[in-house]
Amino acid sequence: MGKARIPVVAIFDVGKTNKKLFLFDERYQIVFERSARFLETEDEDGDPCENLESLRLSVFDSLHEVFRRDEFDIKAINFTSYGASFVYLTDSGRPLTPLYNYLKVYPQDLQDDLHQRYGGVEQFSLDTASPALGSLNSGLQVYRIQQQKLEVFERVKYAVHLPQYLSFLVSGQMYSDMTSIGCHTALWDFQQKDYHQWVRDTGIDQKLAPIVKGDEVFSAAFPGSTYKVGVGLHDSSSALIPYLLNFHEPFILISTGTWCISLNPFNEEGLTKEQLEKDCLFYMTYAGTPVKASRLFAGYVHETQAKRIADHFQVTTARFKHVEIDWHIVNKLKAGKNIPSSLDAFETVDLHDFSDFSEAYHALMVYLVEAQVASTKLIFSQKRIQRIFVDGGFSKNSIYMNLLAQAFENIEIYAASMAQATAIGAALVIHAHWNSLPIPNNIIELRYYRA
């Protein structure tokens, strides 16, 4: 008798740079991990884009590899990936075009024309909760194909977002999910809770696969297989799932990286013009309810300004990693000063004003947190927020966390850490279909910061 096989879920987590496959056991521990990177290729205009064929082969290769292993019993498979990317499929499921990059320059006249027909850019952006971001509004990518490549558009059976394409590879089913439709695609009318009128008027709705909820599963397309296949999720929405399942009192999650995104799943009040101008938008939860979000390019600013400080004081940026907060310095920096809340304010600060690198770095963090507080406050709502969770890079930064706790003194502030939150979200959302244990309540490690 061989030893019993471990029941697992397989999760593909497809980022821009890293493509990962994880197997989680029933306690959500990672029992297997594989990572790949592919060379980008080019679309017909010479713009860089993801290599769809490498991606497809990699999904099948890694699945073959884990199915060959006797120690695992794969019960289900799910997918999570970056949003704003469409795959155009024929009825036999073959991609018709490259996977266009969401940073591809969008024809201004095409965008302006569409906006003008539906009440102007401001109204259009408010209705769709999508700041005008060119190709990042992925619905406009479909519009571009229709307007500029009609012969391709006519052969499209369905246009699906990348997570749903990955799911289709294994299930053979073409569907759309709410988390992908809900992320600044310009497709969804958040007031009407349906596709925006322009999607119907242009007939693009005919090319969008039927919508299912994010916790939906299908059977696999391969004869004799018993595992279930999830519909796939947009990565920012997936990372929120562990929090939604664990905490039911109103909270905000600040997900920190290059972008620091504040997410409030307890705010359904419509976007205002001011919020839109300050880079607020709606995401969707897997169940299709809105999540109000604000974005701040803070990780990037932290990186460039920390480098400026390091160069000035002739130290390496590694010295900043372990700087603990020094309240004397903070109080001195803040004394009688009005710290501006604009993100670029620190760029013009003269580093000769500081006695050493530690003081300069404290000042950078004071400025950054000021901007973060302003960004996060944009998504506060009538419902009183009880907790703010911070995950990602800044959750490990003592100065950032302490200053945040000081700024939000009547809210509990926690640094949250969870290895692979995005992948775990995609596993949790289909928990009932593969896991015989209850959802564990210790997936997220919390560290409390007192004001």
UniProtKB/TrEMBL annotation:
UniProtKB keywords: Kinase, Transferase
InterPro entries: ATPase_NBD (IPR043129), FGGY_C_2 (IPR049382), FGGY_N (IPR018484)
Gene Ontology molecular function: any one: kinase activity
Domain Carbohydrate kinase FGGY C-terminal: 249-432
Pfam family of the protein (one): FGGY_N
Record flagged with keyword Kinase: yes
Residue ranges of every copy of the Carbohydrate kinase FGGY N-terminal domain listed in the record: 9-230
EC number: 2.7.1.-
Keyword Amino-acid biosynthesis appears in the UniProt entry: no
Record family assignment: Belongs to the FGGY kinase family.
Protein name: FGGY-family carbohydrate kinase
Organism: Sphingobacterium suaedae
Upper lineage: Bacteria, Pseudomonadati, Bacteroidota, Sphingobacteriia, Sphingobacteriales
